[in-house]
Specification:
- It is a single chain.
- The protein is of the alpha/beta class.
- Helix content is about 25%, strand content about 15%.
- It has helices at about 15-20, 255-265, 270-285, 315-325, 355-360, 385-390, 400-410, 425-435, 440-460, 475-490, 490-495, 510-515; strands at about 25-30, 35-40, 70, 90, 110-115, 135, 155-160, 175-180, 200, 220-225, 245-250, 305-310, 330, 335, 350-355, 370-375, 375-380, 395-400, 415-420, 465-470.
- The structure holds adenosine-5'-triphosphate.
- Adenosine-5'-triphosphate binds near residues 311, 316 and 335.
Length: about 525
């Protein structure tokens, strides 16, 4: 059997019988099976052939048994010879100068057609092309999709780089692969009945919404690169597409917004995620040991209490007082800071006061669980600070700004978070002034953050386990100890006969009791 004989072209661009006879391939049987003919005619692409392109192929009218005709990269304008090829299955006439759309009698079994890179402007009725399953019309001048309604076998349709501004005329075709890259689409419409669609390329358009994709449940890949999608919330339209594996939203304005916001004004979640990742990675690079905080059982989280609120709201003082009163349950987890000690502050008790250099050196040593830059200084909670408390069988009580809470929420620790929030802003401002420690700018910054705390509480129900107004320190402490007693289930135990603290048989640690409350 002969296979692939090159087709040579004459210099003047007219294909002759002589040339065809030396270029045709794939000798096969046809009809009764007793006759033989060549089935395939393939022109090598211009890049492989130094001959000039052909434009007149009328000689091919005589080659009625062709099943595969490949004529890419020529100057063909007229394909009417195909009318004489009733057995044609594959037609590649890409990179030519054809302006008429399917201007030939339909071969009954024509399955694959490639008319890409031609000069076509208008689609026409293809209801006679019932076997068509692959149609490539890229790089033409189509403005509208039409005439495909009856193509009940069409699975692959490509109309990339045309001038289509609306998706229509696809109705309920069995299309699995659809490419409309590089058109003028502004919205995704007319796809709702393409229930078989698996791969959709809408890149290089002007689409601003993902609406219109929500019912395409077989979609596995969507390319929307370089469109005008600016809202990441648009992804809600594809939330139910369970088979979706690839979604390309590169070069959409949403990228720019997200990345510039993340760079210049990053949301707390983003800062916290970065902080957490940094410390986790550094920690994983250290020799791994079994921590006291993971005992006695790896399943139950180590109990921690975090007091949060704006600077100077009293959380540090309240934390110390709480640890004193409930000393059999809690001990203070002492953070590190690079700020200088205020008058009366004790190293190791209020903070571990360290130099910026020491602090920075501790980061790659995997020492920190979380860190924060606040008011020009570094603050950080170390693993050791927690372990020191855990070793005593106690729950760790710490205080920190909101960023620290966000970061800690990424860790496997599951503290209870109590928000101490000033309600009377003036009183809070006066208190900060009276402390005599802060500049006006620092006071303004602290006051402005009250809103941040309040909004976080509003927008994230359950983010804080308790919210306590802290305008009056004594009242705040009473509320705090009530809340803590609730966590420790102390109310009932004090009333009952078996007071947990009085029972000689009780072997629970403070930490255990804290864990047993409903929160965990
Ligand atoms: N590891 C940490 N992570 C996040 N925030 C922290 C951390 N350690 C301390 N902070 C918080 O940083 C802020 C500044 O701490 P600093 O001790 O300088 O404040 P302060 O003026 O003494 O106020 P406060 O009375 O609220 O502690 C405080 O709100 C403090 O709770």
């Amino acid at each position: 059997q002969l296979r692939f004989i090159n087709l040579h072209k004459q210099k003047d661009g007219v294909l002759t019988a002589q040339v065809v006879s030396s270029s045709i391939s794939q000798l096969g049987l046809f009809g009764t099976g007793l006759q033989r003919s060549y089935h395939s005619l393939s022109l090598p692409s211009i890049t492989l052939c130094s001959h000039s392109a052909i434009f007149d192929i009328s000689i091919l009218c005589n080659y009625v048994y062709l099943q595969k005709l490949e004529l890419p990269h020529n100057k063909i304008k007229d394909l009417s010879c195909v009318s004489h090829m009733p057995y044609l299955v594959i037609l590649d006439a890409s990179h030519n100068e054809i302006s008429n759309f399917f201007e030939f009698q339909p071969p009954k079994n024509l399955k694959e057609v490639n008319f890409s890179h031609n000069r076509m402007t208008k689609m026409k009725d293809l209801s006679a092309y019932l076997s068509l399953n692959t149609l490539n019309l890229d790089h033409n001048n189509f403005r509208e999709i039409s005439g495909l309604e009856q193509c009940c076998k069409l699975t692959h349709l490509s109309l990339a780089h045309n001038k289509i501004s609306r998706i229509s005329g696809l109705d309920s075709l069995p299309v699995t692969h659809l490419c409309l890259r590089g058109n003028q689409l502004e919205m995704i419409e007319g796809l709702e009945n393409l229930k078989s669609l698996q791969v959709l390329d809408l890149s290089l358009n002007r689409i601003s919404s993902l609406s219109g994709l929500q019912n395409l449940h077989l979609l596995g890949s969507i390319d929307l690169e370089k469109n005008l999608i600016s809202e990441i919330q648009e992804c809600k339209h594809i939330h139910n597409l369970l088979l979706l594996r690839d979604l390309n939203l590169l070069r959409n304005p949403v990228q720019v917004i997200v990345s510039s916001v993340n760079k210049y004004d990053p949301p707390l979640d983003v800062v916290a995620a970065r902080d957490h990742m940094t410390h986790l990675v550094y920690q994983l690079m250290q020799p791994q040991v079994l921590y006291d905080s993971t005992l006695p059982s790896p399943d139950s989280p180590y109990p921690m209490l975090v007091l949060t609120g704006p600077q100077g709201c009293g959380k540090r003082e309240l934390a110390h007082r709480l640890c004193q009163e409930f000393s059999e349950y809690f001990a203070h987890g002492t953070c590190h800071t690079t700020r200088a000690a205020y008058f009366g502050e004790e190293n190791g008790l209020d903070y571990h006061f360290v130099s910026e250099e020491d602090f920075q050196n501790m980061i790659p040593m995997g020492k920190f669980i979380q860190t924060l830059q606040y008011g020009g200084h570094s603050y950080g909670l170390t693993r050791d600070a927690i372990e020191e408390v855990a070793r005593e069988g106690l729950a760790c009580c710490v205080h920190m700004e909101l960023e620290g809470v966000f970061s800690l929420k990424n860790s496997y620790f599951e503290p209870r978070y109590i928000l101490l929030i000033p309600i009377q802003v003036e009183k809070y401002t006066d208190h900060l002034k009276k402390r005599g420690l802060y500049s006006q700018a620092q006071i303004d910054a602290a006051v402005s953050r009250i809103e941040l705390y309040a909004n976080t509480n509003k927008q994230r129900p359950g983010f804080f386990d308790n919210i306590i107004p802290c305008d009056d320190r004594e009242e705040a402490y009473q509320m705090l100890r009530q809340a803590v007693k609730g966590y420790l289930l102390l109310e009932e135990q004090e009333e009952g006969e078996d007071n947990i603290r009085a029972s000689p048989d009780n072997t629970s640690t403070g930490a255990d009791v804290f864990v047993c409350s409903d929160h965990h």
